[in-house]
């Protein structure tokens, strides 16, 4: 029986990625760099999960620097980007995806435990949840497993494994909600069943490793969890 739902954040709870992209670009400008990540480039760079890792990959492949300089620059840029991103979220720039609030409230009312397993930084999550649910978010979400709490980010299973450890539940008692192929791979590698929901920046991702693929979050329903508990659920794309 499924007793807990583990949510990804970026692309799943909210369409955050364009705000991340804008915050990266604003941080570049503040630092006097002429770098600009347009949507097409960002879609490509998203294959590298984690903002600091994404920056390091960009420097290594397109703007090479000595390693010590790159390390220092990535630290500074990422701190500036996090401040800019959280400021925008606090100002209400990022609503939750349609259907998420209803699904979260229904799951909580049904006594399911809710958790987060994400690559993004902790302040980004707490700011988003606070702006969406107010102070109640702490009561709604029992566990948060975030990017820098583990050694290896998605598609490694580490962050889902951490969420399971904190929940003190086996993978069989949980379902993950994801939007990207890296996220699906991470959850599957931790032994979880996965409901994948298509999102803007991951629309081209192969989600076929998910247990079930939905077109949008408005299709999320508690009845699906009961269906997942039954064998032979057909995959839909
Ligand atoms: C999301 C990410 C994150 C955000 C940026 O992946 O890769 O890195 O783009 O967050 P997922 P930070 O949804 O699979 O968890 O800059 O805070 O790392
Ligand atoms: Mg995601």
Produce a short descriptive summary.
It is built from ten helices and six strands; from the N terminus they run βαααααβααβαβαββα. It is α/β, with parallel strands linked by helices and 237 residues long.
Task: Describe the overall structure.
The chain has 237 residues and is of the alpha/beta class. The chain folds into two domains: 4-14 and 95-236, Rossmann fold; 17-90, DNA polymerase, domain 1, CATH 1.10.150. It is 46% helix and 11% strand. It is built from ten helices and six strands, in the order βαααααβααβαβαββα. β4 (174-178), α9 (181-189) and β5 (193-197) form a beta-alpha-beta unit. α1 (17-30) packs across α4 (67-90) and α4 packs parallel to α6 (122-133). The protein is globular, with a radius of gyration of 18 Å. Mean pLDDT is 95; it is low at 232-237. The structure holds xylulose-1,5-bisphosphate (XBP) and magnesium ion. Residues 8-11, 17, 20, 49-51, 118-121, 124, 147, 154, 180, 182-183 line the site of xylulose-1,5-bisphosphate.
Shape: globular
Binned, the helix content reads: 40-55%
- How many separate domains? 2
CATH H level of the largest domain: which superfamily?
HAD superfamily/HAD-like
- Using the coordinates above, name the CATH class of the largest domain: Alpha Beta
- Annotation, overall tally of beta strands: 6
| Beginning-to-end CA distance, first to last residue | 25 Å
Report the total helices. 10
Cross-sheet strand order for the largest sheet:
3-2-1-4-5-6
Instruction: Provide the structure class.
Output: alpha/beta
Order of helices and strands: EHHHHHEHHEHEHEEH
Q: Give the biggest beta sheet.
A: 6 strands, parallel
The assigned CATH architecture of the largest domain is 3-Layer(aba) Sandwich
């Amino acid at each position: 029986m499924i007793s807990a739902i583990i949510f990804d954040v970026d692309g799943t709870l909210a369409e955050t990625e364009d705000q991340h992209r804008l915050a990266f670009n604003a941080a570049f400008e503040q630092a006097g760099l002429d770098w600009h990540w347009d949507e097409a480039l960002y879609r490509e760079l998203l294959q590298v999960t984690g903002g600091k890792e994404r920056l390091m990959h960009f420097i290594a492949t397109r703007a090479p620097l000595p390693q010590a300089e790159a390390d220092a620059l990535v630290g500074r840029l990422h701190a500036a980007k996090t401040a800019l991103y959280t400021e925008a979220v606090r100002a209400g720039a990022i609503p939750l995806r349609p259907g998420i609030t209803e699904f979260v409230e229904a799951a909580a009312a049904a006594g399911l435990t809710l958790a987060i397993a994400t690559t993004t930084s902790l302040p980004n999550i707490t700011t988003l949840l606070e702006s969406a649910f107010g102070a109640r978010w702490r009561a709604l979400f029992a566990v948060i497993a975030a990017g820098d709490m583990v050694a290896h980010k998605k598609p490694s299973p580490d962050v889902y494994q951490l969420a399971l450890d904190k929940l003190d539940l086996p993978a069989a008692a949980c379902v993950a909600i994801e939007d990207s192929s890296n996220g699906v791979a991470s959850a599957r590698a931790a032994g979880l069943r996965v409901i994948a929901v298509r999102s803007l920046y991951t629309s081209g991702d192969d989600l076929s490793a998910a247990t079930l693929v939905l077109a949008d979050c408005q299709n999320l329903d508690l009845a699906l969890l009961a269906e997942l508990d039954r064998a032979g659920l057909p995959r839909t794309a």
